[in-house]
Design brief:
Elements: H1 7-39, E1 52-58, H2 64-77, E2 81-85, E3 100-104, H3 108-115, E4 120-125, E5 141-146, E6 167-170, H4 173-186, E7 192-195, H5 199-210, E8 220-224, H6 233-236, H7 239-246, E9 250-254, H8 260-263, H9 265-274, E10 281-283, H10 290-295, E11 298-301, H11 306-313, E12 318-321, H12 340-344, E13 349-352, H13 360-369, H14 373-384, H15 391-410
Parallel strand pairs: 1-2, 1-4, 2-3, 4-5, 5-6, 6-7, 8-9, 8-11, 9-10, 11-12, 12-13
Helix pairs in contact: 1-3, 2-5, 2-15
Length: about 400
């Protein structure tokens, strides 16, 4: 009987194989460098990568709004930093820093192979899954720090996403409670937790305050910005929600989650072919979402963190969909308590269900006319956006303090 391997398992095995090959090639390169060192009588460096006091890893330009303010502050304070990116077109590679060295380290598994051999005292990253998938803890890194993607539940990462970080930089007290509960359930050592705020929300709010006021447009602009995966809008509602929106007298912007272009590529290609750009519809995948959020009157999403960008910074109402969220793939599956996201959403906007999707035009009218969601936005800011305007300084304070601690231990 032939052995059957399902596509998901096959993909995982292929990813592991590629990662192992990448790590092997990088290890061979290190051996060759050592051989050159011996041949040269010690005149050449043993390694092409000196140990960094502080390294920052980014998956690419979609995280510029988080990392650029941090790098700017580190530069201003004279903290030597190595910035590592997995995207060749990352605009931060072009910035003329004096104290920050920027490097492109390859894409995908090639980048993780480099990270697995990294030498640094402290590493900061937004990427979950450390020591779970292809990104392994390097024996030459002392301290890994995670800064979250969004100001909502820390348990909305895929399973075990943050378990093996040493420290997490948080924006709300409820996130700390969730982490401590996961640690207890999984018998994990306690992480160092630091409340810092939200770097990219601070930056977005500053940009909004200084931006010119946009002219009023008689045609409403509706932004459909789903998350990705089986519980997200496009998987659960499909074409039904797009058809209903296009039947209204509005301008529709569809902005898929960046991960959808990787994990749901075929589905997106089908939808873009069925619903091409036109007068009433535009597809958006800008790396910076500031302008598309500023242009929109109402946001329709599911459990994506963009709900909070739109509500808390732009102070506008949202429509969130009933996607029958499946907690199984996420850390949230370990916790019985209702997610903070789903407790706060009814206070930020109105719920769209299978039953009222055909009345979407009325739902949009109602959510724009209502004044009750302002109080909910204030509550959400209090609970999930600590230290507004201070996130960069508090983040850099923590990083420098940790670097100094590690250097003291080294000596």
């Amino acid at each position: 009987m032939l052995l059957y391997i399902d596509p998901g398992t096959g993909s995982m095995l292929f990813t592991i194989l590629i990662g192992l090959l990448g790590a092997l090639l990088y290890a061979l390169k290190r051996v060759w460098i050592k051989i050159r060192f011996l041949i040269s009588g010690g005149r050449k460096a043993i390694d092409d990568q000196d140990k960094a006091s502080l390294a920052i890893f980014s998956e690419g330009k979609r995280y510029v709004n988080t990392f650029e303010p941090i790098l700017d502050e580190l530069e201003k304070r004279g903290q030597r930093t190595v910035y590592l990116t997995a995207e060749q077109n990352d605009p931060l590679l072009q910035k003329a820093y004096q104290n920050v060295e920027s490097r492109f380290i390859g894409e995908g598994n090639a980048a993780y192979a480099r990270l697995n051999m990294l030498k640094a005292d402290v590493v900061l990253a937004t990427t979950p899954g450390l020591d779970v998938y292809q990104w392994r803890r390097s024996k030459d890194v002392k301290w890994y720090v995670h800064i979250p993607h969004a100001p909502n539940d820390i348990t909305l990462y895929r399973m075990f996403g943050i378990d093996y970080y040493d420290a997490i930089l948080l924006s709300g007290g409820y996130q700390e409670e969730q982490i401590r509960l996961l640690e207890k359930l999984r018998n994990l050592p306690a992480k160092e937790l630091e409340q810092v705020g939200v770097v990219y929300l601070d930056r977005m709010k500053k940009r909004l305050d200084s931006a010119e006021k946009k002219d009023a447009n008689p045609t409403r602009t509706i932004l459909l910005a789903p998350s990705w995966g089986s519980s997200a809008i496009l998987q659960r509602f499909g074409t039904k929600i797009i058809d209903e929106l296009l039947s209204l007298d509005i301008h529709l912007i569809i902005r898929p989650h960046p991960q959808s272009f990787i994990s749901e590529k075929e589905m997106l290609e089908r939808l873009k072919e069925q619903y091409p750009d036109g007068e009433k519809l535009e597809w958006n995948n800008d790396s910076d979402n500031f302008e598309v959020l500023r242009r929109s009157d109402v946001l329709i999403s599911d459990f994506s963190g963009v709900l909070f960008d739109f509500s808390l910074v732009f102070d506008k109402p949202v429509i969130y969909t009933d996607t029958q969220f499946d907690k199984a793939p996420y850390d949230a599956a370990w916790i019985d308590e209702e997610l903070w996201t789903f407790k706060i959403l009814p206070k930020l906007g109105m719920k769209l269900t299978e039953q009222n999707v055909e009345e979407l035009g009325q739902v949009i009218d109602d959510v724009l006319a209502s004044s009750i969601f302002q109080e909910g936005r204030e509550q959400a800011r209090r609970e999930t956006w600590n230290y507004p305007g201070q996130a960069v300084s508090r983040t850099v304070d923590y990083l420098i303090r940790k670097v100094e601690q590690m250097e003291k231990e080294n000596s």
